[in-house]
Amino acid sequence: MNETTELDPPTIVWDDQGACLRVIDQRWLPHRLVVERLRSVDQVVVAIRQMWVRGAPLIGATAAYGAYFAWQNSGGRDDAAVAAAALKIKAARPTAINLAWAVDHVMRQAREASSEGDRAAAALRAAHDIVAAELERSQRIGEHGLTLIADIAARKHGEPVNVLTHCNAGRLATIDLGTATAPIYLATGRGILVHVWVDETRPRNQGAGLTAWELSRRGVPHTVIVDNAGGHLMQKGLVDLVIVGTDRTTRNGDVVNKIGTYLKALAAHDNGVPFYVALPSSSIDWSMATGGDVPIETRDGSEIGRVFGLDESGKPNSVQIIPPGSDVANYAFDVTPARYVTGLITERGICDATEQSLNARFPVNDR
Ligand code: MRU
User: Fold this and answer.
1) Of these residues, 227, 240, 247, 285, which one is catalytic?
2) Structure pTM?
3) How far does residue 234's CA lie from ligand 1's centre (Å)?
């Protein structure tokens, strides 16, 4: 475990001197801040599969560097090993579309290089471009989403705006501002009072462990709640707005996101609470008609049976919480039908969760 003393290490950064990719191993947060160096396709696959890195845009960015490692290994030859490496990276996790999108993009850019000798360099540039593009998308999503928070703040005459979020669609899931958190960070930066209800997000606790950690570090008031509390809070008028991220949104506007998102959308619908999805275009799957077609990842049952944390002596540890003989089913994502989505906050503005509206923002020749 490479614990770091860096105060605010980037979620992902290319280290030119070390010729490696530095990422935070998020499995240890919020208890330890560990930075690891990735130097090969296999290490990238492990980091994605074991969720050292997670969150759709970050998975995509990491995968992009994996594709670069493949071209570097082959010396720019477009051989069977490069194709196999691309497939292996794309298979590391099935649901976030950013993964396949980023690998395909890097492969295309490398193949378009003028000579074999230029291919690895072209792949590296393409990976850097993906990181830069995600940064830009988060900034734009933040600016568009800020208007929603500012409007509610104006109606509440400066009382804090209560935003509920699920999982981690923050800095740790992307590169800097996050997607669902970007409007929150920009709003607090402008002096708007925001309070965030943070779903713990069982089984891996991305809310309790990651979102709460990054909100704490940025000084954003927040309260961690159990996953089932959201409906109750909405009934009591304690949620003004829900903003979540997405791992894949299909062209009709169905939103695939961390398991439990659907139930939040149902509760929001029943209580008249606006339910928005922060959506970088890298998470749109134009090839899929509806969310029902998206592969839903099922993960190891141990994530449900055991809970990770610090023990009483302050050491990271996990404990068993279910009887040894019980079966478990660990579905990692669910589909929120477009009809429950008030709007999609994209880098090109806020639009309805419909095919027509998405097409108007992202015409076929400009995606
Ligand atoms: O399993 P994870 O932690 O990779 O799931 C992440 C999520 O579901 C996020 O909400 C989603 O990727 C959006 S991240 C901007």
Assistant:
1) 247
2) 0.96
3) 23
